[in-house]
Specification:
With 222 residues, this protein is α/β, with parallel strands linked by helices. It has helices at 2-12, 79-85, 89-93, 98-109, 119-134, 145-154, 167-174, 184-204; strands spanning 30-38, 48-57, 60-61, 67-70, 114-116, 142-144. Helix 6 (145-154) packs across helix 8 (184-204).
């Protein structure tokens, strides 16, 4: 209800009515997977330096139509963040300013629900720019893959059960290959594969076993 009221307010006070499409339903049977790479984890001071978005139509992950961009941010990557996403200051300097990227990204997102892994962080990082640009926040419904995974693996678990919601752990449980984390496009693609598989399992009433099967490496020469 709070989000509905907030969106109603933003729609009524939207600075640029060309973006009213954000408040309309997106194409039927489509969601959008979003991932951002940032200079840090503090939404107040850190900046988005890379973004990727992939549409899922039904069960088809539309990688050929993905959106991706490097953003020239005011705040440069720190040595700690460079170790994570490998984007150096000169890489970011060659990117485009956010005021060029944002209109394209918003049109690509449209009214589709936004899927992500800890998606609230990614949306919050974008919202501070969206708010300045059109005086509204992204109104899109959000779908958190770790919540679906939690329900399928840990729903009904006894008290004291150790929870593991790490990205790599979800990949392992679902048998999805790791493409190398902290690249916006790779993360979005892996998250898309997670979502498609988790949604299918949920629809079938399937569960994820709490004991993860560890693949043993074959001996050399086997």
């Amino acid at each position: 209800m709070r989000r509905w009221l907030r969106n109603l307010f933003y729609r009524a006070t939207l600075a640029d009515h060309a973006y009213r499409f954000l408040f309309e339903p997106g194409p039927a049977d489509e969601v959008l997977v979003l991932d951002c790479e940032t200079t840090g984890l503090n939404p107040r001071i850190d900046e988005v330096i890379a973004v990727a978005a992939i549409v899922i139509h039904g069960n088809r992950i539309m990688t050929s139509e993905a959106y991706k961009a490097i953003i020239k941010a005011d705040r440069l990557p720190t040595s700690a963040s460079i170790k994570v996403h490998q984007l150096r200051a000169r890489d970011v300097a060659e990117g485009r300013p956010v005021h060029e990227v944002l209109p394209e990204l918003l049109r690509f997102i449209g009214g589709r629900p936004i899927v992500g892994y800890y998606v609230d962080f990614d949306v919050r990082m974008l919202d501070k720019h969206v708010l300045r640009y059109i005086e509204a926040k992204l109104p899109n419904r959000r779908i958190e893959v770790s919540e679906i995974y939690y329900a399928l693996k840990y729903g009904g678990a006894p008290p004291g059960t150790v929870l593991d919601l790490r990205f790599q752990s979800i990949l392992a449980d679902l048998g999805i290959p790791s493409l190398g984390q902290h690249d916006a496009f790779n993360d979005a693609l892996m998250t898309a594969m997670m979502y498609v598989q988790l949604r299918d399992m949920r629809e079938r009433g399937a569960r994820i076993g709490r004991e993860r099967v560890v693949q043993q490496e074959a001996p050399i020469g086997a």
